[in-house]
Amino acid sequence: MNALIANDITKIYSEHTALDHVSITIPEQTIFGLLGPNGAGKTTLIRIINQIINADSGEVLIFGEKLRANHVEIIGYLPEERGLYKKMKVGDQLLYLAQLKGLSRHDAMARIKVWLEKFEIKDWWHKKVEDLSKGMAQKVQFISTVLHEPKLIILDEPFSGFDPVNAQLITEKILELKANGSTIIFSTHRMETVESLCDHIALINKSKKILEGAKKQVKESYRSNTFLIEHRGNHFTLPAEKYEIKSQTKIEEDLFSTTIKAVDGIKGNQVIRDLVDITELYSFQEKLPTMADIFIGLIKADGDEALRKHLQEV
User: Checking DSSP bridges between strand 183-187 and strand 152-156, what pairing results, if any?
Assistant: First the structure.
């Protein structure tokens, strides 16, 4: 079963089209990367899923059911703009938010204690949110998002404000949630996070979906038959009808790194056979595209120079 299907979603504000007939399918128990620049429309889509706003047309299905009010109890939402009550104590706040999601006081208390232990922050119960650092408050917000064990979790830039150690801790908890049956929509600009966490992705740009699919299949479809070799000696030639030498750099003394593009149909084994007689190979690998490479190429083709530069920077 699919956790979520958005069919032909359109949302227009005055003269601005935020979403233009966008459709996505999110398989159950996966981590789905919802990607795009600020203003592309992904936040609008997230708000429609959370029933904060309504679509002008199209429909959303949650686990096969048309989106309705009581689905709020099976959705956990961590917005990019955090929303904790600064004057409340951590324990009181988590208890209040858990009860809003339908948990009894008894169940909420038990789950809060478990999560505070997981994050090793049991002594924060009586701390006020305004006394916490940004990273500490982020932990509390994350706990409030998953405390009611939602089947669908939406995380908007969840690593914002975390140092590498705590970012790794959150990563581990996200993977645990997936293993325990949750489906996670993951909105981020960080391409390295997409590489390490996401199973499926969709890219929205200028209110339209321009790419969607399983991450592995997307990367496979953008393979360029390019190979990176390390070798002794920098002078060799290959048949021009079969190969193009794209670049070459010196590593040390007589050791060089060369990038070779082969024509379609030539496999790695054939490349190695053609190289072993003309140079001394030290390493050989296919140069697979990263998600950042793919997105930059797509955005460049889509004519969005600002996003292309942004993706290169992050």
Answer: parallel
The per-residue pLDDT for range 74-89, each reduced to its tens digit, is 999 998 776 788 889 9
* Residue 8 predicted with pLDDT over 90: yes
- Cβ atoms within 10 Å of 142's Cβ, excluding its own: 24
- CA 19 from centroid of its chain's CA atoms: 20
Token pair listed for 274: 């053609």
Q: Where are the beta strands (DSSP E) in 171-310?
A: 183-187, 200-205, 208-214, 226-232, 243-252, 255-262, 280-286
Q: Where in 28-89 does DSSP place strands (E)? A: 31-35, 57-62, 65-66, 75-78
Q: What is the arithmetic mean of pLDDT over 57-78?
A: 94
CA separation for the pair 302, 306 (Å, rounded)? 11
Other beta carbons within 10 Å of 157: 16
Q: How far apart are CA 97 and CA 93, in angstroms?
A: 6
Q: Quote the CA–CA distance of 186 and 36 in Å, as a whole number.
A: 11
